[in-house]
Amino acid sequence: MDERQGRLIGGKYELRRILGQGGAGQVYQAYDLRLGKNWTIKRVNRLCPGMEEQVLARVDKTLSPRIVDVVEEGNEKYLVMDWIDGENLQEHLRREGPYGVAETLQIGIALCDAIAWLHERQPPILYLDCKPSNIMMDREKKLWLVDFGSAVPQQDAKAVPIAASFGYAPPEQMQKDPKLRWADGRSDVYGIGKTLYALLSGEDPGQPPFAARRLCDCRPEVPEQLEKIVEKCIQDRPEDRYQTVGALKAALEEAEKGRTKRKLRAVLFSVFSWIFLALTIRQAGLFYGMLPVRAPQYGQAVWAFGKTAVCAALAGLFQRLSAARLTGRFSYETLQSVLRTEKSAQRWPLLLLTVFLAAGFLSPKAAPTAAAAEAVAGSPVILRDACMRKLLIKEGSLFSTGESLYLELSPERFCTQEELKINVTALGKESGRRYEYTLFYRPLQEDGGTESFASGRDQKSAQTETGPSKR
Fold first, then answer.
1. Which of 329, 466, 464 is nearest to 403 (CA)?
2. pTM for this one?
3. Are residues 181 and 129 in the same domain?
4. pLDDT tens-digit profile of 269-301?
């Protein structure tokens, strides 16, 4: 616990709790005993040089809290500022983890607007301390810059920085020799880039391993375009960065528009993938006889199978493209890691296609076609296997079986006065001997009986050999 907590400042400000601490001092939540409201109080050393008061006097009050009072006690100075009901981005990172891509883009654009406004002053004001702990977000999602202890006016081409935050300050601001330290607008570009890196990766550049990993290694789902923007911001050489905050803002806005377009395309691709998936299931149902065939005659069953394969392939393609459009890069799975990205979006179409292809090649029965279905529908005979399941066989084709087969006459045929004649041909599987049977059905006679008999060219075929049959 800080020794100053509970201390009364200026006779009316009670320090309640510490909010943050840095090289320039501590920040507290204070309660005004007279007005009955909360304030933010920053303690700074009165003897240390600083320009925070002068800078804040020139800053737009929509970017930073106002200084409403200054209290001096001994060697300490207390800046009393507006209380912001919210939390800084660093606290959110600790509690919730990395920010999403869309929210990070919005934060980056808002930061560019705030710091660009500072750069446009005469003389320009360099912020030089952009990091998540110095950015507050209130309950209305508005951003505030809360620490101007490192800010300096740029009187010449280069300003002399007075402080820096390790991990977020650029190399030129971190020189060991004070005479070699300098900063300009590109230094703030570096700070914004490091802040975006921290928000996206969830890692603190000021802590080991000091943000040595690339952004794509931390968050593979971050779009490649945004990753390149961040990498350009944090180049060691100022000449390799964006030369102005305005140029950085334009790049972020372009990335945001591109992401919106990719998201729209992803939705369209996803819709098409589901359409093709439905067509795949339908074609598979037609191919395996699970659905009635009402389509025109296509010829061979290969055509139906080919359509199934094409639909499955297109479904997989559209699903994969939708994932790529949404993230900006094709997703992948990192080895030796618990991270899995877009796994279902990549593998289900391939699995679906594999199942249909394997089933097509391994299926022992011939596939029905539209012509076969129509021929069977018009036939008086229904062919069933030993389990009494209906068999659909193309007329004129061979069907090989090792079990008993049953012929079922359609009941509607018995209502007619026509004679029925059914020819059955069987071929011995081993002997190759041909057997032909003729089944006759005659309508009811006057005595109420029925007459039916079978005749065959080979009477020895009474004991039918099991083998290929031809209808």
1. 466
2. 0.58
3. yes
4. 667 667 766 766 766 665 555 555 554 444 555
